[in-house]
Amino acid sequence: xxxxxxxxxxxxxxxxxxxxxxxxxxxxxxxxxxxxxxxxxxxxxxxxxxxxxxxxxxxxxxxxxxxxxxxxxxxxxxxxxxxxxxxxxxxxxxxxxxxxxxxxxxxxxxxxxxxxxxxxxxxxxxxxxxxxxxxxxxxxxxxxxxxxxxxxxxxxxxxxxxxxxxxxxxxxxxxxxxxxxxxxxxxxxxxxxxxxxxxxxxxxxxxxxxxxxxxxxxxxxxxxxxxxxxxxxxxxxxxxxxxxxxxxxxxxxxxxxxxxxxxxxxxxxxxxxxxxxxxxxxxxxxxxxxxxxxxxxxxxxxxxxxxxxxxxxxxxxxxxxxxxxx
Length: 326
Known about the structure:
The protein contains eight helices and eleven strands. It is of the alpha+beta class.
C-alpha cells in the first residue's frame, strides 16, 4: 500500500510539474509575442515620425518637434521629454521643445538655457563620446558628477535617459526623457528606439539649418538652385526659381531623391556623380533632361559641386532652362 501510494504521489507530482512547466512556457511565449508586437508598433511609429520630419519645412518644423516629444513621451510612458540644441556659437544649449505629463511640473525657467559651465561640459563630453547616457537614479551619481546631479535634481528628475543628436559628425544637442514620479531603469530596446528617432531628427535639423543658410544666400538668384544630401541624394533646399522650373511647390520637392528629377536611364549616372562629389571630384557642366512632377520635361544645363556646411557635406546643383536655346 505504501509503495502504491508513493507511485501515485510520484505520478501526480510529475504531472503537476509538467503542467506548471507548460504554463510557464505559455506565459513566456505570450510575453515574447507581446514584446515583439510592441517593438513592431514602435518601429512603425518611428518610420511615421521620420517621414513627418523629412518633409518639414522651416515654418512647420517647430510644430512637428512639439508633436515629436509628445509622442515619444506617451509611447515610452515617461513624465517628460525634452529636446535641447546648441546655439550657433556653441556657448549655450537651449531648450527647443518640451512635453510634460499631466500633473508633472514644468522645468524651472532657469533650465531653459544652459550656459557654458562645469556641469554642461561634463554632460556633453560624456554624451558626445558615448552617444547615450542612462541614469536610473540621479541621487546615486558619484561626486565627480555633482554639478550634473544638482542640475537634474533642480528639475525634479529622478531618472533620465539621453541620446545625442548628430549629423555629418557634428554634435547638435540631445533628446532626453525624464522619470519624475519614481526612479526607472532604461531598457536597451527603449534606448535603441530613441537613437533611431534621434538619427532622423539630426538629419531634419541639419537640413533646416542648411535650408535657412541657403535661403538667405540663394533666394534671389534667378536660376534654379538645389541642395541635396551627399549620401541619400534627397533635396534639402531649393529656391523659388527651381520651384518655378519644376512647376511644383517647395513642399512637394523637399525630401525627393534627386534621381527622380531625371529619366530612368540616367539613374546610374546620377549615382556615379554623387559618389564622385563625395570624394571632392570636379564635375563638368552637363545638359540633360529634367522631369517635372506633372510628367512634362525640359532641357536643363546643370552645374554640380560639393559644399561643406556645419552639418557635413552636401551637393549643390544649379539648373538653367536651355530648352529654347537648343
